[in-house]
Amino acid sequence: MAQNASESGSPLAGVAGRYASALFDLARDERAIDAVAAGLDRFDALMAESADLRRLVRSPAFSAEDQVKAIEAVLAKAGIGGLAGNFIRLSAANRRLFALPDMIRAYRELVREAKGIVRAEVRLAEQPSDAVLQDIKASLKDVAKAEIDLDLRIDPSLIGGIVVKLGSRMVDASLRTKLNSIRLAMQGAR
Fold this sequence. Notes:
It comes from Methylobacterium aquaticum. It is a peripheral membrane protein. One of its GO terms (cellular component) is plasma membrane. By secondary structure, the chain is an alpha+beta fold. Helices cover 62% and strands 15% of the residues. Strands 2-1-3-4 form a 4-stranded mixed beta sheet. Helix 3 packs across helix 4, helix 3 packs across helix 6 and helix 5 packs antiparallel against helix 6. The longest helix is centred in the N-terminal third of the chain and has 17 residues.
């Protein structure tokens, strides 16, 4: 794992990776990996909903004391405690809140890796039905020979079709790409 941390571009690189690795090791020792992930996910969802919380996390204008007080209030109101709450408090006290979103992503990656779960990003032009979504998950699970953590994104610019990124592999079967290919072929035929 130490070699991953030194690779640039790796989710375990830098401050975020070191903090996430330390948290993961502690959570594993305490048998609280899933509980910590749930707490971090709750905090991440709060950041997604609140511009004020995002500003608190990202802005260096707030003093460490102000950040710690505000984070304490947020954690208490959200009911985030245990290792996840302590980790977020430590990040605030150490003036590392700006890196917290990256720490959460790195922690999620460590959990997926430990559980043998493969992350798949799927982009579709419109929201699929539950049956179609289950078919996509089943197909990806067959290909990956592992459990899948599906990140579904809706991108109307695709027009139709699907774009799948599974590990380092990517398949673009979108209508937009097919139309662009036809357009390029037509230009070359002139």
